[in-house]
Protein 1
Amino acid sequence: MPNIDRRDFIKLVGAGGVGVGAGVVLRESIKHPKEHLIPHVLAPEDYSSGVATWYNSVCSMCSAGCGISVRTREGRAKKIEGNPSHAVNQGGLCAVGQAGLQVLYNPDRLTGPLLQSANRGSDGFTQITWEDGLTRVASRLDVLRAAGRGNRIALLTRGVGGHLAELLESFAEGVGTDQLHHYDYDHPHALYAANERFFGKQHLPYYDLSNTRHLLSFGADYLAGWLSPVHHSLGFANSRHGGDNRGYFVQIEPRMSPSGAAADEWVPAKPGTEGILALGLAHHIVASGHYEGEDINEWKDVLSAYTLEKVAEETDVSESVLRRLAESFANASPSLAIGGDGAGNNSNGVDTLVAINALNYLAGNVGEVGGVIFNPDPAGATSHSRQANYQTLAQLAESARAGEIDVLILNDVNPVFTMPLASEFKAALAQIPFIVSLSSFIDETSALADVILPSHTYLESWGDAFPEQGVGFSIGAVSQPVIAPLYNTKATGDIVLDLARRIGKPMRWDSTEDCIKDGWNKIYQESDSNTRTESFESFWTALLKAGVWGKKNHLKTDTSRPNANTIASIGVDAPTFSGDAELYPFVLQPYRSGMHDGRAANLPWIQELPDAMTSVVYGSWVEINPKTAKDLGLTEGDLVDIESVEGAVRAPILVYPAIRPDVIAMPIGQGHTNYGRYASNRGANPLEILSPLVDDNSGNVASNATRVKIVATGKHVEIVKTGGKSRDLGRDIVQTTGGDDHTAQTNSIPITVIPT
Amino acid sequence: MSFLDRITEGWRKNRKPGYYEDFDYHWAMTIDLDQCSGCGACVTACQAENNLPIVGEDAFTKGREIKWLRIEHYWEGEYPDVKLNVIPMMCQHCDSAPCETVCPVSATYHNQDGLNTQIYNRCIGTRSCAVYCPYEVRYFNYNDHTWESPLDQQLNPDVSVREKGVMEKCTFCIQRIRQAKDNAKDDGRRRVRDGEVQPACVQTCPSKAMVFGDRNDPQSQVSQSLNDPRSYKVLDELNTNSSVVYLKKVEAEG
């Protein structure tokens, strides 16, 4: 031990002390900040740590109106599931519905009101207060309203149903405008028009897939996008329960969709000839004595031109196949024919869908279980009466160009993305002096706004829905907030109510919740006083708890017949296409894949969900027939320009085994230029190059009627997709069985829809 | 034999990993390929329930995506007589699992419910199990994954988030099984009722093509579905004894 004198000892102690002190300081400075777990003295309602709370609500990702149950933990939404009690989806939910959480928690959501302080369309948005934002908008509206020029105000909203639609109506009335438009790209205008012409009904009927034994689907991708895909999936599965009565599904479309893949038979008819094919089948049914109605002679007259021989030539489907389809359709009982986007979005779309209705009528499927069943009038508003078709939006653009619109209010709608470039919709918006958007996100349309007053997402706000396709009886559901608002946003209804107050036209409700409750109070008052609950409050509580309301008011079998004029009007012209067939040899079919109309492209789960047919993620592609690819010397990943008369988009080739050689197809949804970090600058948007060819009967653009050519660029990219081999190579992974050994056990699904 | 010896022996007999002779429950799943349309709802539901990462486009190009459940596509024939067969593919929870025998640290083993489970904090990332798995349903974390705020607020608190260097795969939503067992115990029941547990994929399936339940219970829906003459196991010739059973797609004549 070394000698340490008193001085050294003191020095060492001093140095040690400093060292320890420095150590403590250093340790404190690098330590993670303290986190405290503080229990609530008074916990919020329905909040207990570690225990999940479920709220029933309504999915708003598309217009099908599925019921959802949202699982929340510690005040945060964790998982969305289908509400098992809801008759539309019965517990099921599609991928986009599952991904609704990423609308709520999207990192690109707007967190508060914004003012465009630089050039319109630039990134120069600055944060403002709600007071400032609302004042700016209200002052504009007030000046116009007070001067009696309210009609220079236009409202454009995404399709909103239920009592919120009434609130918007009331607001439009208050400011004195009739320019209130709902817009969904996929709204089935042609189907409504055809049903009105043939059945005289404004509402969509219920297509009873569940009980049908033979389905002819004309371009309706009923399992993946058409009207109410989750409900159709239930019906499809129920019809396929094994046993002798297994439903037989036929899909008639030029490009195989997921519904085509699930079908028992895929018939690649020429694009746009679906209606001619339907009338060919109708001709055979009438001519071969399967139809024996009093009006048979009128039918014979109108169908005389559609002999199987002629139809076979026009549709490129052999006579023997047509005869077999007609026979099995007429013999199966019940059978059902449906026509979807593939058939309806042609130049002859409405005529085609009328022909399909006629086919149902002749086969005796109208008003029958397993056929076309008419819904009672919905208990609340649907968006259809205000839905804008292509012509309406084109007119709006025309008024904007003429300087007749001073203020445009947008609500969560993105027409700049879904309207063809040829409509020059974006340029027209630039002519409007003041645009305000209520969107939760910046997208291609709301980027053009002067003021953005961001609204809540559907999981944070009140609303309700009355599904348009329905289930054969009255059904509705309330959408309730499942989580406190994440950001400084307001509910759409509350913004509108506030604006109405500010311009001196207050509505009779204080809040959106008030409006929804008021609407349901009416439904309560109208219900049977013997069976209903004691008070409205108890009804309301029960409604929120169950998440769904229904009334078993099935319509009696409808025996109405089409009159002679209707029958005489039946006929389908050959489809017309834009572009010269020599110069533009392919028909372009833009189809909806997993991203709806593009609104789901900013959800990373959906970007990473492999496409249902091709397994592609994160991008666009062009589907072409293997033979076409070989003829053109193209292979997968070759970058090509798809050129129409109107313009060009660039995407890689994907050789697709199930598409007609004269057709190419592209998915809709990608190609955003300004829609957050996950969607922007990715892929191509085929809607841009569509010709504005309109079916006059529906007023909507015939989106399957644009001819294009393929121009190779010589460049090559790798298409990002999952999965390995696209062929089984004898491993027998997916096994099939034919014949009779498929009877017995089933997972039969109880579908509750049986009309009385 | 002393009392202590008897307890020790009993414990050894029942707790030896990978060699359970009798399962408490024997979870199994059937998937009816005649009803499945390959829509992919199950894929997203699984991602939401089990905190699967958002891997980004680059990871996909390198084959490093993580999808516990995926839809496989097999084309058959040439235009116009062409067909697409789809099949949902996830961990088959084999009772004779090739992956279990190969793990050097027993990070993957068979539990008392007949589940093939993965212990994340025991895994050292040799990836041998993924090589041995004939169904290719094991996914390796080549990176640490992050969720851009506030997407992280969606994460399921009942499921751990895996880190770099760890293998992961379908668990049959074991957290839901645990929850159901807890609920049964709280209610004073000995067993979980049939239908009380639904993995996220089964729950969301729009066409109700999937059935999940206890194979030990002959009355359960899954037991009845297993008896369907259409039932088969994928790559059955490998004798993996899988717990996921498919029902053949029917090819009907028009």
Protein 2
Amino acid sequence: MLLPIKWLKNYVDIELSSKEIADGLTYSGSHVESIIKLNKGITGVVVGKIEKIDKHPNADKLRICKVNVGNEVLTIVTGAQNVSEGDIVPVAKVGAHLPDGKDISEADFRGVISYGMLCSLKELGYEDNVIPKEVKDGIFIINDDVNLGLDIVEVLSLDDEVIEFEITPNRPDCLSIYGMARESAATFNAQLKEIDVKIVNQVDDIKDLISDINVDTQKCHRYYAKAIKDVEIKPSPLWLKTALMNAGVRPINNIVDVTNYVMLELGEPLHAFDIDKIAGRKIIVRQAKDTEEITTLDGVQRALTHEDIVIADENKAIGIAGVMGGANTEITQSTRLVVIEGANFEPKNVRLTAKRLGLRTEASTRFEKGIDENLCKFAVDRACQLIEVIGAGKVVNGNYDIVKFTPEKTNIKLRLSRIEKLLGVKIDEFDVINYLNRLKFETSLLDEGIIDVVVPTFRRDVKVEADLIEEIGRLYGFHNIETKPLFGKLTRGNRPKDKELQNYIKDILWGLGFNEAMTYSFISPKAFDKLNLPSNHEFRKYIRLMNPLGEDYSVMRTTLISNMLDLLNKNNNRGIESMRVYEIGNVFLPSNSSDSMPEEKTMVCIGMYGERDFYFLKDVIETLLERLGIKEYEYIRESENPIYHPGRTAKMIKDMKSLGVFGEIHPDIMENYDFDKRIYIAELDFNSIFEFTNLDRKYTELPRYPSIVRDIAVVVDEDITVGDIEDVIYTNGKELIESIELFDIYRGNQIDTGKKSLAFSIRYRSSEKTLKDEDVNQIQKKIIDDLEEKFQAKLRS
Amino acid sequence: MENKLNELLKSAIEEIKKSNDLNDIEKIRIKYLGKKGQLTLILREMGNLSKELRPIIGQKANEVRFEIEKKLDETKSKLEQQEKLEKIKIEKIDITERRKSTYLGHKHPLLMTIKELEDLFISMGFNVVTGPEIETVENNFDMLNSPENHPSRDLSDTFYINDKLLLRTHTSPVQIRAMKKYNAPLKIISAGRTFRFDDVDDTHSPMFHQLEGLVVDENISMANLKYTLDIFIKELFGNDIKTRYRPHYFPFTEPSAEVDVTCVECRGEGCPHCNYTGWSMELLGCGMVHPKVLENCGIDSEKYTGFAFGMGVDRITMVKYGIKDIRLLFDNDNRFLEQF
């Protein structure tokens, strides 16, 4: 919403600068985006009249103008083709400065000295979108009764400033100059001037020009129309053009400009139809048909649906209600009879139509937020008044006013005690009433401390007592409310246990050298193909978004692995040699019934490439689980998991529950990614980890007796695992075994192929006595016998 | 014989003086004092001496032994000291050389910010609660008093799963869940992922993060809201930061306000960063919980009032760390992650 300050001051008596107005309105709730100076740096440009135009003796495309600038007549050479003798134009004199940085000096144009330059609106700093089409490529023809020599800055009100506001959706009443004047008057406690609508002369009768108006839809709350005859279409007078341009609207012609002016002034979008083009001279407001089409004023043909509201004649749609008029009834040079429409449409329909058509207009943005139905008549009458004032036509007697809404008066009981309770500050009854009256709320005292408040019709957003308290609060000034500490029971804040644990896991992984990543919750379904997942894989049971931003973000992730692979791949492609990273995030599993919520499962995904190996990742996970107090889980080989290397993957199980899977990524998937290093990934189930985590720690006594260390080296088949052998050692040594450490694996000449030698260092200790060699020898023998029996292991000496 | 002893002492001391290392010292010791050493040999001849001379020479011999031992020990410790110094000297290393063998990870700046904010509010007595990323339309909009026609409900603003479920567009539905579960009084915060139908650019991301706070109790007012947020903002940005409360509109609070803070770049002086206003705009939104929202959750809005506030954590993170492009937060470039 653009608010030119001079225009504002027509309606409200304030002597404040733009900055002061902007600051004040900011504090009362109108959010200022910026303050725009209209003068982008013009000096030395005045109004001049072209008295004579001669051909340039040496150049076909140039002409020599004699331009009267009041106190002198200047010779100015111009290349512009749109000027004629008698035109009044902006003239940049020698020494002038223009917004684009240009300084005007005497210039020799093929032998003729030019003492200035005729200016276009663009050269004066106007944006293309507000420049009238007829002077788009040429000099700005003023042709109004303006004193020659006057500074153009003054003539075009370029000394004004415009405040740009972001109006919140609950305040459509602020989408107009007068609405903002009302806000300003309330904010600064100033007098708001009424707009006096008076039409001096009215002729004939509207019934003779328009046979009937029918409203055949509940979505049109009111339809008010007046007619104008003897219309003479021409450019608007300078003040009107300037007002529009400075508020960001392009002047078209006098009739359309008046409707736009009133829309900006009052916030009621109006539309003018050429009566001669309305078949049967009858207007019907109805829902569109699904097969219907209309070409709008912007020349685009648009398909309609039954959700749209149209203005139609007997045969065809002539406008899309609240959005844009039809080209078929456009005001043109030949228009003589005009009907001015001021209507009120269901906001939802306007919004959906504008949205579907991708056609958000000044009108639709106002209608879709809801406009006071009472404005229709006032705005159309105001337009008629202006049409009369600028002599664009004769206002016709009578009107059509089809009213489909029941005016409702909203009364709200306001308790002074409640104001204090909500705002935390005591405001005098007198001030409360004063604030409300300034905002045009009517008040009457009901009872001690209770005020009956009548909400003005343009404030549909105010419905309950709290809304009124906001009104009072914002005029009192939120910034003036003195702060007060909370009081009550002293409580300690907490994090839920699962979040605490996540933070602990992060700390551990951080300490182990892993960086923390964050990836999107939605992924591409193609990710599952890249993971070579069969069509029935559980990860493919995903939740799809109805309206994704694109295929790449269209399904909710069921695993963190694909995002992890993507991010590792991206980093590898960036030339980063190695990476260790983790993400803790949710995966989303569809529920069985459509009524219940999907399941969100938190997973811990750890990934790395470019250094170390499977055993490092295993060590990381074991360290993590050890710190979380998770013990007695077992490893199961996962050779069927399509994501992982069949020989290098483990699943961890505790009490029949999976803690997670980790391993090296399958070479086929590495090919899918064209990844040249090995990747190791773990995906752990946070819920299981949370369930088994035990952070209670109890001191166990330090050993009192010495330990004995013995080494065993055995040769076994390749298929026998370290875990198998360790199990045997533990089974035989029981609680006397303090630790087992694998310190060597040997394959080579000294042993048969297909075999390996494993060397363990076993530490024995008893908590009750000093162990003797005999005690340990006995166990060692049992271990060796057992290994021989179970695995045909041979002792290597 | 006495002469012999004197000679021996003299020659021993001479040799000790010439010795260069600990080996020499040991050799000298053996040569003179060993079992077959020269002094021992001399002492064996003692038997031949007269009764009178024996004690005298014996004492003399002991003196000589003592002298030699003393000299040997002195020289030994001197040499040892020398040797140690020599060793220390050659052990000098190039202290500018680098051998990377430890590695500490880096936490994500946005998640660090969330934790920091949570910790701050925890210290003020707020409890952290969480909610799901996939929410019901009811919790995300209806219960929060969002008008049925509100544009934020459109398919072009919100990601839907179906007509009942969506990706939450703010963390406010967690308020609803908490109020329904715990009723009043209540003092909670909740941070997490939120989603809006925004194409990715420097400042927009379809996934972003909010932190939401809610206090419901008897006699909670706007004055309490301001006090709480002022403390929070000062803790976050420093004591010289000022706040500005501007009336605003949110469907779920009434009155509603937006809070601006002093521009963190220029500290209020005015700079291009803040468009010369001195204010960083819209750090957070807040307000008094709309009575309808309280009632929707089964809380007596006459007895209880409450305030709520919400902020974009991505933006706070970006301001805090000087990150200009939101995409960096979710791109996981290792070179980016390692900066924090």
